[in-house]
Amino acid sequence: MEYSNSSNTEQPQTCLEITMEVHRVVPPPHQSTIHKLKTTLKETFFPDDPLRQFKGQPTGKKWILAAQYIFPILQWGPHYSLSLFKSDIVAGLTIASLAIPQGISYAKLANLPPIVGLYSSFVPPLVYAVLGSSRDLAVGPVSIASLILGSMLRQEVSPVSDPVLFLQLAFTTTFFAGLFQASLGFLRLGFIVDFLSKATLIGFMAGAAIIVSLQQLKSLLGITHFTTKMGLVPVLSSVFHNTKEWSWQTILMGFCFLVFLLVARHVEGIAVGRTFAALKNYKVDGNKEMMAIGLMNMVGSSTSCYITTGAFSRSAVNHNAGAKSAVSNIVMSITVMVTLLFLMPLFQYTPNVVLGAIIVSAVVGLIDIPAACQIWKIDKFDFIVMLCAFFGVIFISVQDGLAMAVGMSIFKILQQITRPKTVMLGNIPGTDIFRDLHHYKESMKIPGFLILSIEAPINFANSTYLNERILRWIEEYEAEDHKKQSNLQFVVLVMSAVSTIDTSGVSIFKELKKTVEKKGAELVLVNPLGEVMEKLQKSDEAGDFMRPDCLFLTVGEAVATLTATIKSQVSNHVV
């Protein structure tokens, strides 16, 4: 078979002799509606197939596996050894030395009594050790959650004028946060958190880190009259309007201690990147972890604990210290308990400037400048989303900044869904390969063929746009071909990337077919996938929409076959 190519610039026509076997497009195997629904639900809520371990097992074994699934400690506990305990006790004591000052500091950040921060590093780790499946995760209070909790509650109740109510609201908030998180995990809805894109998180965390650090200027400068607002402008205004309250002794002490913490924090930074790359030796079920952390917060809220979760820096230290199991959390919990029982009076004399320096050193690592630069290189829109989250947090509020970033992320998703990409394909000379004309400059148009690739699922949200865009492609092609005095004969739609289609999508093909036929051309489909082909066949009651001569597996086969058909018709007409 042969067909001629012409580029979109003025180039001489060439002929390619291509011989190929044309493969028949076959419909997908029949599946019942129940089977389709079952498959869809399984892929939506159980993509990791957590129940596969129960298949083919006797009843007794299934009960054992179920107990181990709910309580992972029953899985690794019987195999626990003294050598593992030696590693875990070292790791537990190490993270306890980090958890105690951080717990006190983060409680202060949340406007809660310091002892609440220690309670939150005592009870939740015990619960997680029983329910959690990660060997490296070290749980406890974290800076961002403390900041959000404190700022949101302070809008409703003053921690100074009504500290009891403030504390009760903190525990109630913790309970419902845990309930919500556990429910998401139980209902297998953990994928909802995927709406927080990487760019959103980087911008939000950086902005929150700056807000947290600015709040510590009260302690680091020795200011007594400080604003209760969280924004950048009111904080800086408060700082420079109270310069008479600055204490050089406090500033010197805070600066020296902060430098010491930042320098010490730097063997850890190197170690994190080196060791966490090897954390793929075991698998962690995200939904199950959500249930464990949610239940941990629900239990914690009834034992005077506020919101806790897994902290990256603390988990990195836990791993670097040689943790082998969740026993390291138990060791940390026992260490904190001893501190609560016997050493708590000593912490009453901890200077606020020291606590402020601890908080700043902990959150400064949340500002990830290399990641921001990488986002700028890869995707400018993601960079804008990141900046919205960043500036929203520091200039408006933590909650509004996060809401803005999530809103822009969702807008980006909607934009991709409602405005799918379509590209015009051309033939790479000497081959039967067809690629984007704008991407591959050597690719050439085929006279009489408009070959378009639809690169997204088709649904009610984008069907109207696709119909209008394809018609515009046709008009542009006809305007260009009018100058060359050639006619459009075939509109070829490549459907390889169209994974799904709904009734609105099916209807545009019917409309498009009628429009194309009115122009004296024919609509041809290439490689429609199973579900798409099945729905198009069911809608083709007349039997003329999915004819074999309008349905091909590859663009090369379509062009070669249709070109040969045209030549055959011309030859017969001449005869």
From TrEMBL:
Major location category of this protein: membrane
Matching PROSITE patterns: SLC26A, STAS
Keywords: Membrane, Sulfate transport, Symport, Transmembrane, Transmembrane helix, Transport
InterPro entries: S04_transporter_CS, SLC26A/SulP_dom, SLC26A/SulP_fam, STAS_dom, STAS_dom_sf
Keyword Transport: yes
Domain STAS, residue spans: 439-562
Places the protein is found: Membrane
Transmembrane segments: 112-131, 165-189, 195-214, 221-240, 246-264, 326-347, 353-371, 383-411
GO molecular function: secondary active sulfate transmembrane transporter activity; symporter activity
Membrane topology: Multi-pass membrane protein
Gene3D superfamilies named among the record's database cross-references: STAS domain
GO cellular component: membrane
Claim: Cell division is one of the keywords in the record: no
Full protein name: STAS domain-containing protein
Species the sequence originates in: Gossypium darwinii (Darwin's cotton)
Source taxonomy: Eukaryota, Viridiplantae, Streptophyta, Embryophyta, Tracheophyta
